TrEMBL record:
Record-linked PROSITE patterns: CYTC (PS51007)
Annotated Cytochrome c domain residues: 47-126, 142-220
Subunit structure of this chain's protein: The cytochrome bc1 complex is composed of a cytochrome b (QcrB), the Rieske iron-sulfur protein (QcrA) and a diheme cytochrome c (QcrC) subunit.
Secretion signal, residue range per the UniProt entry: 1-30
This protein's record includes keyword Glycoprotein: no
This enzyme's EC code(s): 7.1.1.8
Membrane topology: Multi-pass membrane protein
Entries under InterPro entries matching the protein: bc1_cytC-su, Cyt_c-like_dom, Cyt_c-like_dom_sf, Cytochrome_c_Oxidase_Subunit
Protein name: Cytochrome bc1 complex cytochrome c subunit
Organism: Streptomyces flavochromogenes
Length: 269
């Protein structure tokens, strides 16, 4: 008894008891909870892939191939990831109505649940950009001024200074960004749809993407009440300078002609 009491009073006794309790709890949890949860998640994912494959066979395989390998009518989808599917199908660009220089945005024909299933199937063909969560694309707390700098550096060449869009070569164009959801803006930067370059996290971190989204939303919200007066299409200093050159210089020339004509009349009289 004395030896047992001495062991109980040992400084490490409490630590040993705690470790044994944690080991027992972890063992019980591993034996019951995770297996069931993991199995349920795996089953749900398998069902989503299976349903997505059915939708793909009906709406996508004719252009992208039965296994997503691509055809002469559509590129390979192996490795594009779920984010590309969510963007292309979620904005109505896919399935495409007809071939052309660029596929336009249109009304979606799939529900979000069906889009998620299609995305799950395409993602199973090869690893690629994953559909972002709300915490990734939400502009809450983002730096709008920094987003403006990033946008003017990386995006304004095609979308112009306030996201109005613009013409490109061979019938292509940069679309207007007004009304585009933060999720789709983030996915477009992730995946680089059609003529747009991609900006993965290694090139443009998540924080910078959120800053750009905040800027786009801010300038779109202010278009109805531009602090500078007429927005002139939101094209920036080029259109503003052209406006000043044509109308401002034109007015000065008109005034100069009027002064010269009246001066000549005064001399004759």
């Amino acid at each position: 008894m004395k030896k047992l009491s001495a062991r109980r009073r040992h400084p490490l006794a409490a630590v040993v008891v705690l470790l044994l309790a944690l080991a027992a709890t972890g063992g019980l949890y591993a034996a019951f909870a995770p297996a069931g949860t993991a199995k349920a998640d795996e089953t749900a994912q398998s069902l989503a892939i299976e349903e997505g494959k059915k939708l793909y066979s009906v709406g996508c395989a004719s252009c992208h191939g039965t296994g997503g390998q691509g055809t002469s009518d559509g590129p390979s989808l192996v490795g594009v990831g779920s984010a590309a599917v969510d963007f292309q199908v979620g904005t109505g660009r896919m399935p495409a109505q007809q071939p052309g220089a660029q596929v336009p945005k249109k009304k979606t024909i799939y529900s979000q649940a069906e889009i998620d299933q299609l995305a799950a199937y395409v993602a199973s063909l090869g690893a690629g950009p994953i559909t972002p969560t709300e915490s990734q694309y939400s502009p809450d707390g983002a730096d709008i001024a920094k987003g403006g700098e990033l946008f003017r550096t990386n995006c304004a060449q095609c979308h112009n200074f306030t996201g109005e869009g613009g013409a490109l070569t061979y019938g292509k164009y940069a679309p207007n960004l007004e009304g585009v959801s933060p999720k789709h803006l983030y996915e477009a930067m992730q995946t680089g749809p059609q003529n747009m370059p991609s900006f993965p996290d290694t090139t443009m971190p998540e924080k910078e993407k959120k800053d750009i989204i905040a800027y786009v939303q801010a300038v779109n919200g202010e278009k109805a009440d531009s602090p500078g007066g007429l927005s002139l299409g939101g094209l920036g200093p080029v259109s503003e300078g052209l406006f000043a050159w044509v109308f401002g210089l034109g007015a000065l020339i008109a005034v100069a002609v009027w002064v010269a004509a009246h001066t000549a009349k005064a001399k004759k009289s």
